[in-house]
Design brief:
Distance between the termini: 30 Å
Strand content: 15-25%
Oligomer: single chain
Shape: globular
Radius of gyration: 21 Å
CATH topology of the largest domain: paralog of FGE (formylglycine-generating enzyme)
CATH superfamily of the largest domain: paralog of FGE (formylglycine-generating enzyme)
Strand order of the largest sheet: 13-12-11-14
Helix content: 10-25%
Largest sheet: 4 strands, mixed
Number of strands: 15
CATH class of the largest domain: Alpha Beta
Order of helices and strands: HHHEEEEHEEHEHEHEEHEEEEE
Number of helices: 8
Structural class: alpha+beta
Number of domains: 2
Length: 359
């Protein structure tokens, strides 16, 4: 970390550069995708908060040219991903013993899940959503819903100090299109395509049938996890011996179904649950910024609670949601229990998503 003098000097240099740049080019500076491999998964995070902490002189707003410049100059991470399992290895994950409905509650069955994918360590933030959606609309994409900043934001509003809230009020259709845009922005091949192989770039009602029948192809790009991929990441443990009720299956230990992801005790252990999951008992009746509570053993935050997370897997007439949310009982945060399905057009303030990409 830079000391105070170095930070101040860097800040002054940036300001001088900006002033000189603006004299010749006008009032706006736009961010562009990074083209070198070292900047994969890079972008901008809440630089305003960094300036409040370090320089004590934050820009007035995220549209301020200085903010735009510092966002790129600092090259801070916009999101972070961690590996789940090893490439080519199939893992035996304790799961429900038959077709999983709303409240299947045991680990008697086994889900066989292929490892070797990267998962975002946080739910998708409004900050990330807004930035990529803005870029996408300038590159031929269209969205039915603009998204909101957590449970209490306004649709499509400029990011505020709450920009690290999960994005909400978006549908499965919007997620599919946005993930294709993120892939294209980060110079990967978009995953979601029509049966004829065309990239899906429009989630408006006029294209509903196309998006609803999207094919999740094998192209290397960002996508929603499947239900079992989500569950494997949520139940992952690094134990070499059984601790906190670990279940032994397939040569390794796993979190039991009645624990929240990352918890050291079952759901009725209030302290253990509250340490990792936002629910109606501790959320204050609203969503919370991502990453405030303890992560699970993979370093993934909020897999239990805060927002229901959509997966690509079908359940009844829609896609499966996992993990529970800020307005639900803590019972819904159990890693192997609660799930519900939602129609592809549903867009609520208690539902968001996180994404994965194959290694």
């Amino acid at each position: 970390m830079m000391n105070t003098k170095m930070v101040a000097a860097r800040f002054c240099m940036i300001v001088l550069c900006i002033m000189s740049f603006l004299l010749f080019t006008g009032p706006t500076i736009s961010a562009k995708p990074k083209e070198d491999e070292t900047n994969k998964h890079k972008g901008w995070e809440n630089v305003v908060e960094k300036f409040i902490e370090h320089e004590k002189t934050p820009p007035d707003h995220v549209d301020n040219p200085l903010f735009q410049y510092v966002r790129d100059a600092l090259e801070v991470e916009l999101f972070h991903m961690v590996p789940v399992g090893e490439i080519g290895v199939t893992y035996q994950v304790p799961s429900c013993s038959f077709y999983c409905g709303y409240w299947e509650t045991n680990d008697a069955g086994t889900a066989y899940v292929m490892g070797g994918y990267l998962m975002a360590t946080t739910e998708t933030t409004y900050e990330l959503w807004y930035y990529i959606r803005t870029w996408a609309m300038e590159h031929g994409y269209a969205f039915q819903n603009a998204g909101t900043e957590g449970s209490e934001g306004l649709p499509g509003a400029l990011p505020t100090e709450n920009s690290l809230q999960p994005v909400t009020s978006i549908s499965f259709r919007d997620m599919v299109v946005w993930l294709n845009a993120l892939s294209e922005y980060d110079q990967y091949e978009p995953v979601y395509r029509t049966l004829s192989g065309e990239i899906i770039r429009n989630s408006t009602d006029a294209f509903a049938q196309i998006v609803d029948h999207a094919v999740q192809t094998s192209y290397k790009g960002y996508r929603l996890p499947t239900n079992v991929e989500w569950e494997m990441a949520a139940k992952w443990k690094n134990d070499v011996e059984s601790t906190h009720g670990s279940i032994y299956r397939g040569g390794r230990y796993w979190t039991p179904h009645n624990y929240s992801s990352g918890a050291t005790g079952p759901i009725y252990d209030t302290l253990a649950t509250n340490a990792v999951a936002w629910h109606m008992g501790n959320s204050g009746g609203k969503s919370q910024p991502v990453g405030l509570l303890n992560p699970n053993d993979l370093g993934i935050y909020d897999m239990s609670g805060n927002m229901w997370e959509l997966t690509f897997s079908l359940l009844y007439a829609g896609r499966q949601n996992r993990g529970g949310g800020w307005e639900n009982s803590s019972l819904h945060t159990q890693v192997g229990v609660s799930r519900y399905w939602g129609y592809p057009e549903w867009a609520y303030n208690n539902s968001g998503f996180r994404f994965v990409i194959n290694m």
